């Protein structure tokens, strides 16, 4: 049974989405093909084997990077041997609790179909996934023929990172920016930091955003999203009425 919707995009990028999770909640899981190794950006809830789904399309070694430690992005990280994330959230990856991974936001409406008998979204927490690689602003991940730069973009969470490939102009932004209402009200969110991070992203020379949720978009759309956020239209603290 295939538990993922799989979409192939340009530049060796493939998007996985979990079928168990509702469309407005599930994150985008990105697979990027390199010559010597592949990159996974985010891992979803991890309610079924993501690593097995990936082996269907690639047998190269995998570096798994989580943009941050929230339940919808880091749940499958424990399935990978090579696990990277920002040091500011290292303790959460290693010792997840429902509060720390903001799973207390979850209710039954998030689940589209039960992943296994006895699954309970009200008590579920992802498995510990101690980081094997700490990443920070300026670090570069080398896939052999492709190089991805880590950009620290705190605000949504303290250890949020984006991943940028200058050669193709691809940037993967996690929950720092996507085309929806931006979550800046979580227990460890800092809205002023998110504003700085959004400006940092806009200052970069990217062509396409592969975001943590919903569809991908270009730089013009990114400017509109940021401008609307600054006007209070995309903030959870002041959502669109
Ligand atoms: Zn998040």
SSE layout and pairing:
Blueprint: E1 4-8, E2 13-18, E3 29-32, E4 38-41, H1 50-55, E5 62-65, H2 71-74, E6 83-86, H3 90-94, E7 133-135, E8 140-142, E9 147-152, E10 161-165, E11 170-172, H4 191-202, E12 208-210, E13 217-218, H5 219-230, E14 234-235, E15 238-239
Parallel strand pairs: 4-5, 5-6, 6-7, 11-12
Antiparallel strand pairs: 1-2, 2-3, 3-4, 8-9, 9-10, 10-11, 12-13, 14-15
Helix pairs in contact: 4-5
What this model shows, in words?
The strands form three sheets. The protein has a seven-stranded mixed beta sheet. A six-stranded mixed beta sheet has the order 8-9-10-11-12-13. The N and C termini lie far apart (40 Å). The model has no long low-confidence stretch (mean pLDDT 95). It has helices at residues 50-55, 71-74, 90-94, 191-202, 219-230, and strands at residues 4-8, 13-18, 29-32, 38-41, 62-65, 83-86, 133-135, 140-142, 147-152, 161-165, 170-172, 208-210, 217-218, 234-235, 238-239. Helices cover 16% and strands 23% of the residues. The longest helix is centred in the C-terminal third of the chain and has 12 residues, at 191-202. Zinc ion binds next to loops.
